[in-house]
Write a structure and sequence with these properties.
The protein contains three helices and two strands. The longest helix is centred in the middle third of the chain and has 39 residues, at 50-88. By secondary structure, it is of the alpha+beta class. A hairpin with a 2-residue loop joins strand 1 and strand 2.
């Protein structure tokens, strides 16, 4: 994510570059985030205590986001459950869904 680019800026306008990497060791792997910062911006953020404001707004937005996301997910889950209920009541639809699921692994 290039937060020097105007299209990736978040509300804090903090500028950095984030790289998400997948590191492998034998059969294990881990995801890590590598961050590149501009020194003068980091120094200013330290002096201005900008990270405290960031944490405050992040917590406030997270609460709002989680409530909205939960409502959306509940709606989507309810819609899927209703669809499956309707499919189970019609043998031909159940057979079609079963064949689609069985053949989806062959792609």
């Amino acid at each position: 994510k290039n937060k020097f680019s105007s299209k990736d800026l978040d509300p804090t306008r903090f500028r950095n570059v984030l790289l998400t990497l997948q590191l492998h060791c034998n059969e294990d792997f881990h995801f890590v985030e590598l961050q590149f910062h501009y020194k003068m911006i980091v120094e200013y953020n330290d002096v201005s205590h900008a990270h405290e404001l960031y944490n405050f707004f992040r917590a406030e937005l997270a609460n709002q986001y989680h409530e909205e996301m939960e409502a959306r997910l509940n709606f989507m889950l309810e819609a899927r459950m209703q669809l499956f209920k309707e499919i189970l009541e019609v043998p031909v639809l159940l057979a079609v869904m079963t064949m689609a699921l069985v053949n989806s692994n062959q792609m």
